[in-house]
Design brief:
Elements: H1 2-11, H2 13-30, H3 49-60, E1 69-75, H4 83-98, E2 104-107, E3 122-128, H5 130-133, H6 136-154, E4 159-164, H7 166-200, H8 203-231, H9 239-268, H10 273-300, H11 308-338, H12 341-344, H13 358-369, H14 371-386, E5 394-395, H15 398-402, H16 408-419, E6 428-434, H17 445-453, E7 458-461, E8 466-467, E9 473-480, H18 487-502, E10 508-513, H19 515-549, H20 554-580, E11 586-587, H21 590-618, H22 623-650, H23 658-690
Parallel strand pairs: 5-11
Antiparallel strand pairs: 1-3, 1-4, 2-3, 6-9, 6-10, 7-9, 8-9
Length: about 725
């Protein structure tokens, strides 16, 4: 099939190029506009208690609100607030209210309940239209207006005005991430152009993957993602934009390298330009398609996730990989077919000479002679690093880990922790509801609140709850001792739910809601995902490998090596940031992101090497010789592709916040393990040890089933059915 595809692309190269341009323009011009979602609650299904509690709050207390922003007041000299300051604060709040800022629904004046015990800080909670919260830019714009007007009104007084809360964090995060996204994108583009250019000693070769991936595949993918998001009602996450460019460029560059190395090899074997392109597509097309299939499946299975963030991220990235792979198999060879080979590899002068590849030849000989030692050593490295994963601890401090501490919203958060209880910014709510529809008995409130207040980790439970208009629901406000997004607060929430459910008065039921409850339910949802998504993705990738290799043996140890790569990457990241760096934990979504990129994309390199191993076996070589030749000829491709992708992910470490630092390191280190430990040593060494049984029950090692025979591909035009010389395929 891929030989016929290569021949078609070569014969219709200009038509293929024109079709891509027309399709890209049409898709981009007609694609709907999609807004990224930032509300944590929107990413959870409705059957989780925190979401049910939020729905109950909206129904029973339509006038109540969880503050979207918090105005923090303090004296400029750091002293306790006096009567004059209270008058100034009241004037500032009234002034902000009179400004009638768009989307600001209510500003609550400062009161005793919102003044710190030491009298140094005071809060004015602010309600913002919920529709604005769905759009990060609009949400941030409201915060920007509030911050500017508040500071202007406080000028000339002894009171300092600062804005914190979710809206302010959204604004500060945009400021922090906007420059970071641009820096990551620019660094990735420059790295790809320079590294590919150095590999081929060519200017144009360095630009071609950018042309295919960035100029064509990227906008086409974005358009199709928007179509799919709207058609299937998926959420969109702000993290997608930064990740998408690295995925499209990284995967696109990998596939371009797979193709370009084979194209150059065929030119050296004596093919003319068009024959070389067709033969290259024929020989690596299956490996590219299988690799893309494995990555696509790994991404797409996230549609089964309980979390909207990953429901959106997985299918979106799957679409991007399919588009990029299709462009790599059609557009890239079409460009190579119409551009003279000398221009592609200019100004290099030795591109037609086959190098000795002494380093990779030496690695191949080492694996050939000592496969058991190599397998034990490389496997031992993966196992040793995997031990670190046992100490992994997830954290939910999204704002704190994704923004510099000096941002105003972070300063406000820190001052609130010191002036109030750490949970004051986002208190937990326990909603007590009558199961019969009768009015609640207020006489039971004091004892119920007391039981909630006795829970370890609770700072205070308000004894007088807010009653709904019909008297059927009561809202008990509970302050936790720890930050709402901390693991300690989540542990407290677990105990609080047990008490709230177990101590309810007769004829009532309780729902616990609030930000900490949402994080608790995200934890539960992720546990569900680990048990469902990972196994299904693993089985589907196993099936793809089995179909590609026509084997039931090789796919199992390939998946085992990929699994070790996952645990080793998580272990190394845990050791570096938790054990050595002193962080309390890693971002809660990091394991799934490692799965997405290290497991999914890292499988590419295993597929490329195992495909080359099978090809060498079909040429008549014994298992150890096949391992030697696969490393000699496939090693440079894997090394180049792995290095470029790892370097691309490493650019995330330039973003200037701990989350991107953790993410960039984990992805880069995981790709290095996948390329330089698993694909370069572990997989070929195991295959050499297992021997021809690795291909059972297929005929992967039977020369009679190789090129030009049986199940193998038919000879291509220009080869005249003559097998290419050993070592030159």
């Amino acid at each position: 099939m891929f030989h016929r595809l290569g021949q078609f692309v070569v014969r219709r190269a200009w038509w293929v190029i024109a079709a891509w341009v027309v399709a890209m323009v049409a898709i981009v011009a007609t694609a709907p506009k999609i807004t990224a979602q930032t509300d944590e609650a929107s990413f959870l299904p409705k059957h989780y208690e925190s979401i049910q509690a939020a729905a109950l709050q909206e129904q029973a207390f339509p006038a109540s609100f969880t503050p979207s922003a918090l105005a923090l007041f303090e004296r400029n000299d750091g002293g306790a607030l006096n009567e004059g300051d209270k008058a100034a604060m009241a004037k500032i709040v009234q002034g902000l209210t009179d400004k009638k800022i768009e989307a600001v629904e209510k500003i609550i004046p400062v009161g005793e309940q919102t003044t710190s015990k030491d009298g140094k800080y005071a809060l004015a909670p602010i309600a913002i239209d919920k529709t604005k919260q769905q759009d990060p830019k609009a949400f941030g714009d409201v915060a920007k207006h509030l911050r500017e007007e508040g500071k202007a009104l406080s000028a000339g007084t002894d009171v300092k005005f600062q804005l914190g809360g979710a809206a302010a964090q959204s604004l500060d995060q945009q400021d922090a991430s906007g420059s970071a996204d641009a820096l990551i994108g620019l660094a990735t583009i420059v790295l790809v152009a320079i590294i590919v250019g150095i590999i081929f000693r060519s200017i144009l070769a360095g630009l071609l993957p950018l042309l295919v991936s960035l100029v064509v595949a990227m906008p086409t993918s974005n358009g199709l993602i928007n179509y799919a998001t709207k058609a299937f009602g998926l959420e969109s996450t702000p993290i997608l934009s930064a990740i998408l460019i690295v995925v499209v460029l990284g995967v696109g560059t990998d596939y371009f390298l797979f193709l370009a190395f084979r194209y150059r090899e065929r030119l050296r074997a004596g093919d003319d330009r068009k024959e070389a392109v067709a033969n290259a597509v024929g020989r690596v097309g299956e490996a590219i398609a299988s690799a893309a299939g494995a990555v696509t499946v790994a991404f797409a299975v996230l549609i089964l996730s309980s979390l909207g963030m990953f429901k959106a991220l997985g299918p979106a990235l799957a679409i991007a990989v399919v588009v990029t792979a299709f462009a790599s198999l059609t557009l890239a060879p079409a460009l190579l077919a119409v551009i003279p080979a000398r221009a592609v590899f200019w100004p290099g002068k030795k591109w037609m000479r086959e190098p000795n590849d002494a380093r990779f030849a030496a690695l191949g000989r080492m694996v050939q002679k000592r496969p058991a030692v190599v397998a034990l050593a490389s496997g031992g490295v993966l196992l040793a690093l995997s031990v670190g994963a046992l100490g992994y601890n997830g954290t939910f401090d999204l704002a704190g880990s994704s923004m510099p501490k000096e941002k105003e919203s972070m300063v406000v958060q820190d001052k609130m922790i010191h002036g109030f209880s750490a949970g004051a910014a986002d208190p937990t709510h326990v909603f007590l509801t009558s199961t019969s529809g009768a009015k609640l008995d207020p006489g039971a409130f004091d004892s119920y609140a007391a039981k909630l207040g006795e829970v370890s980790g609770v700072a205070q439970a308000a004894p007088k709850p807010q009653l709904s208009a019909d008297g059927v629901t009561a809202d008990f406000t509970v302050m936790l001792k720890d930050k709402p997004d901390s693991n300690e607060a989540i542990a407290t929430l677990t105990r609080l739910r047990e008490a709230a459910h177990g101590q309810v008065p007769a004829g009532t039921e309780a729902k616990v809601g609030g930000l900490t409850a949402i994080y608790k339910d995200i934890n539960l949802a992720m546990t569900h995902d680990y048990k469902l998504v990972f196994p299904i993705a693993g089985l589907l990738i196993l099936l793809i490998l089995g179909l590609q290799l026509r084997s039931v043996v090789a796919p199992w140890y390939l998946m085992a090596s990929v699994g070790l790569g996952f645990t080793a990457t998580l272990g190394a990241t845990t050791l570096l940031f938790q054990n050595l760096g002193g962080e309390t934990g890693l971002m809660f979504m990091l394991p799934i992101l490692i799965y997405l990129f290290v497991v999914a994309i890292g499988t590419d390199y295993n597929i490329l090497i195992i495909a080359r191993l099978r090809e060498e076996a079909r040429e008549g070589r014994n298992p150890r010789e096949a391992a030697r030749e696969a490393l000699r000829h496939g090693g440079p491709t894997v090394a180049a592709a792995g290095f470029i992708l790892a370097a691309s992910f490493a650019t995330f470490m330039l973003a200037g916040n701990i989350f991107m630092l953790e993410f960039g390191f984990a992805m880069a280190f995981g790709i290095i393990l996948a390329a330089f430990v698993m694909a370069m040593f572990f997989t070929p060494a195991l295959t050499a040890l297992i021997g021809n049984k690795a291909w059972w029950p297929g005929h992967g090692a039977d020369p009679g089933h190789g090129h030009g025979h049986g199940e193998g591909p038919a000879p291509l035009p220009g080869t005249h059915g003559v097998p290419e010389p050993a070592g030159r395929h």
